[in-house]
Amino acid sequence: MSFNIGDVVAVTKLAYDVYSKGFLVARGAPDQFRELVRELSVYKEALYRVQSQTENGSRLTYDDPVRALIKRCLQTLSDFGDFVGRYEQLEWSDRGHQILKRLSWAKEQSTIESFRAKFRDQQMMLHMVITAGSG
Asked: Domain of life here (predicted)?
């Protein structure tokens, strides 16, 4: 499979889109989710730096490990986008629905932690790619 700058651009755009949706959903979310969205902000910036390096002709090469990392980023962002989409659709206004929304968030704590771990791991790997590409 050939991997090119277009793939990185697509993943970076998805990161920005998912971050924007997550930011809006975070208003009524628990602290753990808001922290996840803050971490996603750093993650999307790391993707943007990888994109910038490739656009500027750095020595960054897309060998198998980097291709696999970008593919994992795409999958994680897609999954997180689906997760956020469930809460984005909820426009509960009355008190009873607010209680149901809080209960719904409570059952998602392990999912939130799983996304945080994936974003942290992938962000660390992205920073390694950035460092290797600038050296």
From this structure: Eukaryota
Helices (H) and strands (E) in the chain, counts: 5, 0
For the chain, first and last CA: distance in Å? Answer: 26
State the CB neighbour count (10 A cutoff) for residue 88: 13
Q: Nearest 5 degrees, angle CA 10-CA 11-CA 17?
A: 90
Where are the domains positioned within the chain?
5-134
- Please give the model's pTM, rounded to 2 decimal places: 0.85
Distances (CA, A) of 64 to 70, 84, 133: 10, 30, 15
Task: Give the separation between CA 84 and CA 78, rounded to whole angstroms.
Answer: 10
